[in-house]
Amino acid sequence: MSKRQEQYDVIIIGAGFTGVTAARELSHKGFRTLILEARDRLGGRTWHDRRLGIDLEMGGTWVHWFQPYVWAEIGRYGLDVVPSPVPNKLYWIADGKRHEGKPDEFFLKIDGPNQRLLEPARRCFPLPYIPLSSEEIHDIDQSTLKEKLAELQLSDEEHDMMDSMWSLNFNSPLDEAGFSQALHWAALSDYNWKLMMDICSSYKLTKGTKTLIECIFNDAKTDILFSSPVKRVNKIDSGYKAITYAGDEYTAKAVINTLPVNILNSITFSPPLSAEKTMACTEKQSSKGVKFWAKIKGVTEPFAAFAPSRYPIHYAQFEYVQGADGIIVGFGADAEKLDPNNRTEVESALRHLLPDIKVLESCGHNWVNDPFSGETWTMKKKGQLTSYLSALQEPEEGIFIGGSSYANGWAGFIDGAIESAYAVSRLVCSYLNNEFATGSAVKE
User: Fold this and answer.
1) The dihedral of CA 286, 403, 71, 84: what is its sign?
2) 3-state SS assignment for residue 76
3) What is the band of 349 on the pLDDT scale with cuts at 50, 70, 90?
């Protein structure tokens, strides 16, 4: 065990987009920051890696100009985006039958049901980035999306198609999916569900998410230690002490914890975090699915495919041409039902949608079983928006929680991570300037 003598203003747990952006914001104001990262890389649940002979996004991928925080950062560093291919054909399973047609045919069939489902969005989220501003949200937040779909009295075909679309968005079955979460996404998309789908899966950084996080990190004046998972954070006279699993100790006046909500309790805090924060982690959020990539033989024309959440793969879309073959990305609602690195499993699951498909290679990362993530992208269960969001954002003296899980807007996206970094940095700056006016901070 070693004890480091450096005194930092802020220790930041996690080098994802929230942690790195917060380090930049605080270091630019004159605070001394240290990032403790459990993995051996930047990025958190974004991971741009070489697989299948090409650079692929193993985690978070898509960005859009309707996501203002990430779009501002893309412009700040002069980065470019590229669209995912527009599918010429769409395959789907509904009412026990396999269908194929043009994408417009599929989306036309679910336009009416989505309009009816999302009708309360404007009333419940008149100000999408102030998600608790409407009195109606408290009642709406008590319903699941599954319950609301049942109220629409859809045909079996319509229900399967709606389940396919919304289980993709939640990356889980809809049993516990919060109806308010669906309404919030629609509100953030100008109350337009088709625009919402474009925002979520149409544009990506030309050279990958790592280019953006590296730009932000290189702009930060921060210390960082990789492969340094934090075990405990203790309150001490001079602030806080973070202790890693290796026994190394680091002290600072404040701590920002950027762990996702599903693993928030994996660090022991003394004194403990509030009951609301602990309960939010104990309940966990909705997403529990899987993302995979597959190289498929002889397919070079763009397509997409949907299936209900009871199938091991409920969505796939064509992304890249590689010689005479194609590379697709896809998702399943339950990580326990698909091993993305098992080529045979992936091929078998895809054949529900594409009976003749031949998978040459496949890959993926199980974020749900990853001890440093415990989830894919954060999607709230019923009741969690009104019960926990404010409590999770609330500082506890010098302990601050930040991350995509805790954003007011696009929680679960890179945009939400950056939004949260801005917000938590302002809170930390104010805390340090008020509590430690003689420290290294630059007062504003």
Assistant:
1) negative
2) helix
3) very high
Q: Look up tokens 């990356």; give the residue.
A: 171
Distance (Å, rounded) from C-alpha 334 to C-alpha 356? Answer: 24
Nearby residues of 333 by Cβ (< 8 Å), 6 or more positions away: 167, 168, 170, 171, 172, 173, 288, 289, 309, 314
Going from the N-terminus, what domains does the chain have, and what CATH number goes with each? 3-45+208-285+373-435 (3.50.50.60), 100-203 (3.90.660.10)
Buried b (16+ CB within 10 A) or exposed e, 125-137: beebeebeebeeb
Which residues have a Cβ under 8 Å from the Cβ of 404 and sit 6 or more positions away?
16, 17, 18, 45, 260, 377, 378, 411, 412, 413, 414, 416, 417, 420
Cα 243 to the center of its chain, rounded Å:
27
| CB 363, CB 346: distance < 8 Å | no
At 6 the pLDDT is: 74
Tens of pLDDT along 68-84?
999 999 999 999 999 99
CB-based contacts of 18, cutoff 8 Å, min separation 6: 44, 256, 258, 402, 403, 404, 417, 418, 420, 421, 424
Residue 381 has pLDDT above 50, yes or no: yes
Residue with tokens 């629609």: 186
Contact 184, 300 (CB under 8 A): no
Residues, the chain:
444
| Count of C-beta atoms within a 10 Å radius of residue 344 | 10
Task: Inform me whether the pLDDT recorded for 444 exceeds 60.
Answer: no
Q: Are 335 and 368 in contact (CB under 8 A)?
A: yes
CB 195 within 8 A of CB 64: no
Transcribe 132-194 into DSSP letters: T--TTHHHHTT-BHHHHHHHTT--HHHHHHHHHHHHHHHTS-SSSBBHHHHHHHHHHTTT-HH
3-state SS assignment for residue 269? strand
In this predicted model, what pLDDT tens digit does every residue of 18-45 receive, in sequence order? 999 999 999 999 999 999 999 999 999 9
List all residues 6 or more positions away from 26 whose beta carbon is below 8 Å from its beta carbon.
9, 10, 33, 425, 428, 429
Query: How many Å is the Cα radius of gyration of the chain?
Result: 22
Residue 110, helix vs strand vs coil: helix
Mean pLDDT score of the chain: 96
The pTM assigned to this predicted structure is 0.96
Paired with 116 in beta bridges are: none
Cis amide bond preceding 120, omega within 30: no
Burial of 403 (0-12, 13-18, 19+ CB in 10 A): buried
Q: What is the pLDDT of residues 164-203, one digit of tens each?
A: 999 999 999 999 999 999 999 999 999 999 999 999 999 9
